[in-house]
Structures are given as structure tokens and as C-alpha cells.
Amino acid sequence: MRPTARLAAVLLATACAEQPLSPSKAPPRLAPARQASFKAPPGFERLRIMVPPVLERASLERAYARLFEYLSRQLGVPVELVVGDTYQDVVERAAGGEVEAVMLSPHTYALTMQKRPLACLVQMIGDGAATAAGYIVVREDSPLRAMSDLPGARFGFVDRASTSGYLYAVKALLDQGIDPRRHLGSMEFLGNHEAVLLAVAEGRIDAGATYQGALVSLKRSHGIDPLSFRIIGKTERTPRDILCVKPELPQPVRDELKRLLLLLTVRERIGRELLTPMSVNGFQLADDAAYDGVRKVAAEIEAWDAAP
């Protein structure tokens, strides 16, 4: 299959993720019974949910707006989005208890839990699965056709704490015998996935690492056709983002937040309205063990990074 055809197939799969899943393919879910109303406990006046800067701030605000409005109505308090300045900023502030809740990407989750254990509620489901792959992308008109063509290329990563935008991308390169420090022409850290894709599209870098949903997000935010890019490599799959709360958050709030999120599914109209902007199908119960593979890869890449 030609690269463009492969990309088209990927985009079709992503688009299909916004449609209801068949029961046979749906990940295991808990379906709590609906209740009439929730009474916020004394002292609980707002819920701040922090997210890493995986996309541009405006893109994240649009993606989460409908969900947070819904949660605000259901919980009876304002639910506010807090975007971290960097991935490491999110780790430090989440570990420091500066916000009530945080939606952590896999590597930031592993890093945060090393500093301070959090209570974790649910994991995202997207593209019909609780796991996702990362991509190595170039422009469609690039002479680079495969991973083996990358030596000498100007390469863009997201952030050293990004899962698909650095950690697993480096592993994919090393698995192909490409040492990023020795074989790439240059390396840049651009801060978020849209910035990486824009740098590729504008020819400022030759190739970049991103997650599989970023191409659709870029089309929404900048109108750039995903078929402008060619996927020349894929990373191993990782679990998706996980929502955690600080231990001090009252238990009734934790339980209700988890219940509300687990009820949402794109099989229902309200779920489609709230989750489609996030490219999410729903949520499933959090499972810390699902991130053991991320911890293992992080240790491998940290050892590589520390080597002379």
C-alpha cells in the first residue's frame, strides 16, 4: 500500500472513532446507575483540571470546553481548564497538589507518580482502543520515504517528557539503528504536537514525532489537510491519558467525577457532543499496571540519554 493510501486508511479509522463502537469491540466499561443530583460537600467550590500542553492552548480550550461545561452543571461548581506551561511544569504542579485533578499523558503520569502518588480514576478510550501509537511524519512531497532515510535529517520532537513526541519516538529510532544524537542532522524540541506538524509542513524541519490524533487536531485548528503528510514510521502502542486527583479531594467528589465520565460514550448523542471535540470515545477504569511498559521504556531512554 502506498504511503498516502496508508495515511488515508489511518484517517478513516480516526474518523470512525467518532462513531459509536460496536459492543463486541468496545473496551470493558463500568456503567454506574444514573442518579438525580449531586450535592457538593462543604468547602468544595471549584474543580481545576490541568492538562499537559499536548496541543496549542486554543486547541485544548476548544477540545475540553463542552465536557467541562457539562461537568460544571453536574457537580454544581465551576470546572476550570489549566494548561501547563511545559510537560515538566505539569509534573511538578500535579505532584505539588496545586490543582484538584490532572489529565496526564502516559510519561507524565509515570513521572508524577514517582514524586507523589495520586488517586487515579479513569483512562481515555480513543479510536476504539485504550492504547495509541505515535507517528514519525514528513511532508508528502519529502524525499524521505522510510525511517532508514532519516540520518542527516532535521528532526522535531515535542518535549522530553512527551510519550509519543519523544520517549517512544527515540525508542523507534534506536530500534532502527538510528541514534538521534549521532545520526540526525539536528534535533529541536517544539513544545506541542501541532508545533511539530506545522514545522514539518512549513519545511523548517524534515521530520517530526507526534501522536496519532495530532493530524486531525491540526486540521481542526489550522485547516491543514492530513494528507499533506506522509507517515514513515510508527511507535509501539501505549496506554492513553489518565485522569488523576490529589488525595485531598473529597471522596464523594472523586466518586461522582468518575461516575459521570464512565457514563459518557459516543454511542449516545450527549457523549458524541462532549467527546468528539477531544477525539475520545469514552473512558474506562484506571489501571496503573497498564503503564508499566511506559516506565520500562522511560528507564531505557534515560539510560541512553545519560550515556556519553
Note down, in words, how this protein is organized.
This protein has 308 residues and is of the alpha/beta class. It is built from eleven helices and 13 strands. It has a six-stranded mixed beta sheet, sandwiched between helices. The longest helix is centred in the first third of the chain and has 19 residues. The chain starts with a helix and ends with a helix.
Q: What structural keywords apply?
A:
308 residues; single chain; globular
Strand order of the largest sheet: 2-1-3-12-4-13
Helical segment count:
11
Cα gyration radius (Å): 19 Å
Oligomeric organization of the protein chains = single chain
Extended strand count: 13
Strand content: 15-25%
Report the average pLDDT across residues.
90
Helix content percent band: 25-40%
Indicate the overall shape.
Answer: globular
User: Structural class of the secondary structure composition?
Assistant: alpha/beta
The SSE string, one letter per element, is HEHEHEHEEEEHHEHEHEEEHHEH
Give the N-terminus to C-terminus distance in angstroms: 40 Å
Strand count, sense and closure of the main sheet? 6 strands, mixed
| Weakly predicted, low-confidence segments | 1-36
Short description:
This protein has 308 residues and is α/β, with parallel strands linked by helices. It contains eleven helices and 13 strands.
SSE map:
Layout: H1 3-16, E1 47-51, H2 57-75, E2 79-83, H3 87-95, E3 101-104, H4 106-115, E4 119-125, E5 131-132, E6 134-139, E7 154-157, H5 163-175, H6 180-183, E8 186-189, H7 193-201, E9 207-211, H8 214-222, E10 229-234, E11 238-239, E12 242-245, H9 251-263, H10 269-275, E13 282-285, H11 292-306
Parallel strand pairs: 1-2, 1-3, 7-8, 7-9
Antiparallel strand pairs: 3-12, 4-12, 4-13, 5-11, 6-9, 6-10
